Amino acid sequence: MNLRYLLDTSIISSPISVKPDLAIVNKLEKHGHECAIAAPVWHELTYGCRRLSAGKRRDALETYLREVVLASFRILSYDEAAAHWHGIERARLDGLGKPAPYVDGQIAAIAHVNELTVVTANAKDFSRFKNVDVENWSKRRA
User: Fold this and answer.
1) Does a structural domain hold residue 77?
2) How far apart are CA 108 and CA 131, in angstroms?
3) CA atoms in the 13 A half-sphere facing the CB of 52
4) pTM metric for this prediction
5) Does residue 66 sit within a domain?
6) How many domains, the chain?
7) Distance CA 126, CA 13 (A)
8) In what order do the strands lie in the sheet with 134-136?
9) DSSP characters for 30-73?
10) In the structure, what pLDDT confidence band is assigned to residue 139 with cuts at 50, 70 and 90?
11) Which of 41, 48, 91, 123 lies 20 to 30 A from 109 at CA?
């Protein structure tokens, strides 16, 4: 499997949202075999799901995470190389007065060290990172 893309939480969440973004769904169908997710994205998905009250919505999300997300995408770790790059990049951004959310830095770092393009519906969140390619698969937030 040749990986090209690292999916952000906004992309993974879209297909099961109340109003799925069809542009994202179509891109996932076309490129899903080239995609992975970062461990911090898995954390955000799991955390968001478990914060919901027990019931049909939470059950549906748990099933989606287990049967679709885990079955379809490799989860890439935030390892030593990613942590090193993240520390350098975080210091650079702080020095410019442009700090980034910690989790976005982790995702960007995992993408950078694995030479993957971050795919998100919020390209602005990742555009500040140096040497990280970003694509917006959403038509709603182009």
Assistant:
1) yes
2) 9
3) 14
4) 0.93
5) yes
6) 1
7) 18
8) 74-76, 35-38, 5-7, 117-120, 134-136
9) HHGGGEEEEHHHHHHHHHHHHHSPSSHHHHHHHHHIIIIIHHH-
10) confident
11) 48
**What values do phi and psi take at 20, rounded to 5?**
-60, 145
Inside any domain, residue 142: no
Q: What is the pLDDT of residue 141?
A: 55
Residue 83 pLDDT more than 90? yes
Determine the structural domain holding residue 45 and report its residue range.
5-136
Q: What is the mean pLDDT of residues 5-22?
A: 94
Whole-angstrom distance, CA of residue 4 vs CA of residue 35 = 6
Whether the predicted pLDDT of 73 surpasses 60: yes
Q: For 16-50, what is each residue's pLDDT tens digit?
A: 988 999 999 999 999 999 999 999 999 999 999 99
65, two tokens: 């995470």
d(Cα 63, Cα 74) in Å, to the nearest integer? 17
Do the bridges between strand 74-76 and strand 134-136 make them parallel or antiparallel, or are there none, so unpaired? unpaired
Q: What is the CATH number of the domain that holds 56?
A: 3.40.50.1010
